[in-house]
Amino acid sequence: MTIEDFESQLKILKLKKKEFASMVNASYTGVVGWNTRGVTPEWVDSWLFNYAKAKKYDEIRSIIEEKLDADDREANTAQIYGGMNI
C-alpha cells in the first residue's frame, strides 16, 4: 500500500497515525518512517480492511441494540397499561 493510500484510509477511518501506531503496538516514529520507503508493510492493508469491517459491525450492532432496548421499553410500558399500546 502506498503512503498516499495509507493516509487516505486513515482519514476515511478517522484515525490519526499516533492512534494507529498505538492500536497495532508500533512506535509512532516507525509508522511515520514508512514515508521514506513510500510504502507500508504488507500487513497494513489487511489490518485496515479488517478494522473498517469491525467498525461497521460495531455501528450496526449498536443500532440493533438501541432498537431492541426501545422495543423492550415499549413492551414494558404496554404491560403497565394492561397490554394497551397507548
Quick take:
The chain has 86 residues and is mainly α. It contains four helices and no strands.
Structural notes for this entry:
By secondary structure, the protein is mostly helical. The protein has one domain (3-80). It has helices at 3-12, 17-23, 28-37, 43-80. The longest helix has 38 residues, at 43-80. It starts with a helix and ends in a 6-residue tail after the last helix. The mean pLDDT is 90.
Overview features:
86 residues; rod-shaped; 0% strand; 76% helix; 4 helices; single chain; mainly alpha
Give the topology, please:
Elements: H1 3-12, H2 17-23, H3 28-37, H4 43-80
Helix pairs in contact: 2-3
Number of strands: 0
Order of helices and strands: HHHH
Seen as an oligomer or otherwise, the chain set is single chain
In helices, the fraction of residues equals: over 70%
Number of domains: 1
Shape: rod-shaped
Largest sheet: none
* Alpha-carbon distance between the two ends: 57 Å
Rg over CA atoms, rounded to whole Å, is: 21 Å
Unreliable sequence segments? none
Chain-averaged pLDDT: 90
What percent of residues are in strands? under 5%
Q: Give the class from helix and strand content and strand pairing.
A: mainly alpha
Counting DSSP H or I runs of 4 or more residues, the number of helices is 4
